[in-house]
Amino acid sequence: MASSFVIACVGKPSAGKSSFLNAVTDASAKVGNFPFTTIEPNEGIAYYPILCPCEKLGVSERCKPRHGWCSGGRRYVPVRLLDVAGLVPGASEGKGLGNQFLDDLRHADVLIHVVDASGTTDASGRETRGYDPIDDIQWLRQEVEAWIWGNLDRKWSGVVRRHVAVKATPVETLHAQLAGYGTPREVVQRALDRLPRDLVNEFSRWEAQTELRQFVHAFLDERFPTIVALNKIDMPDSDKNISAIMKRYHSTSKNSVLVDGVRLDNIVLTSALGECFLRKMHKQSFIHYEPGTDDFSTELPSLKPLDEKTRRRLETIRDLVLFRYGSTGVQEAIVRAVDALGYIPVFPVKSLATFGAPQQGPAFRDCVLVKPGTTVREFARKLHNQALDRSYAGAETIGGIQLGEADVIVPGKNNVIKYTTTNE
């Protein structure tokens, strides 16, 4: 059973998106199969690290995930990553690959915006020197906003007339217009909740150029939570550009207000090429490196000797990236993206005695990430496509505690679940 959400990797051409995708999806040495039935050419699988209950419950030796892996109680759960076509200014008007980019976004739940912090690519992704990337976050957000607003604007007068004729609620009317963007009703409601109540009450009087624009702005904050990966942090001009960008968004660290769809604590410093090289060296047994950590080892007896050129490059990555920033940042970007959605890991088991099959065997085979607010019965339905729901007889968690159908799943409390059916 796979977690169904999608992380989209976005940005202008040559910002480092492909390197970022390679850096977070190269796990072929760890895993032989994926939980997704179809992986398109521009998709990959990244891994979200969580604490697995296996160690606390004393079954870490038997913890054998069906997908991903677990090491010392740290479990790596596969998540789907989408590499979206590069965006350039004017994409909402059809420039570049704008239409492809914006269509790809329909499938995304959260965005990682890869920004070239080095200033070596201009707004269109062409190689240059001295480009100031301070506006890159803002213009990408504006392109997406213009695209959605433009689609609504073209038919807005007719939408309002139908709204009045059928006496629909604002959320019903807007949800009907936004369903094509993969938008659940609750997202539309949360966007409306961001607006003043008196404005929502005057929905039938909304003008496309004013109130509708205000709604679209709020809608984007809810529909596309965004993590910014300031990439190429080891390049010469990156420091000054990073400082300027951080200064622009500094005010967001003191409140929950988003600026250009981001907050300071959702900006991550990354070196995608550094991570790619470290993983390559680890895979070839020249170093021992754990993704997300602040160093690597060259001293283990099993490792191959390094030539001087490779050793110098590794030391440069160590000095300019790992020691300076604590990691290459790419795994942290994935963690922030999943955390932005608030998803909860749930472990369905057939036995609370073995945490696997009723007989002694592999434990905690499955882990599914679910939306916050998911109930015990809703998760049963998600697991087996109505089959378990039809024969549902009850559920319990660790300690034999019985769970109610409407109980909301909470991490660390009732997220290890055994279901019983009328067939048992």
From TrEMBL:
PANTHER family: OBG GTPASE FAMILY (PTHR23305), OBG-TYPE G DOMAIN-CONTAINING PROTEIN (PTHR23305:SF1). GO terms for molecular function: ATP hydrolysis activity; GTP binding. It comes from Coemansia pectinata. Residues 5-290 form the OBG-type G domain. It comes from the Eukaryota. Keywords: Nucleotide-binding. The keyword Cytoplasm does not apply. The lineage of its organism: Eukaryota, Fungi, Fungi incertae sedis, Zoopagomycota, Kickxellomycotina. PROSITE patterns: G_OBG (PS51710). InterPro entries: Beta-grasp_dom_sf, G_OBG, GTP-bd, P-loop_NTPase, YGR210-like_G4. This is OBG-type G domain-containing protein. Pfam families: MMR_HSR1 (PF01926), YGR210-like_G4 (PF08438).
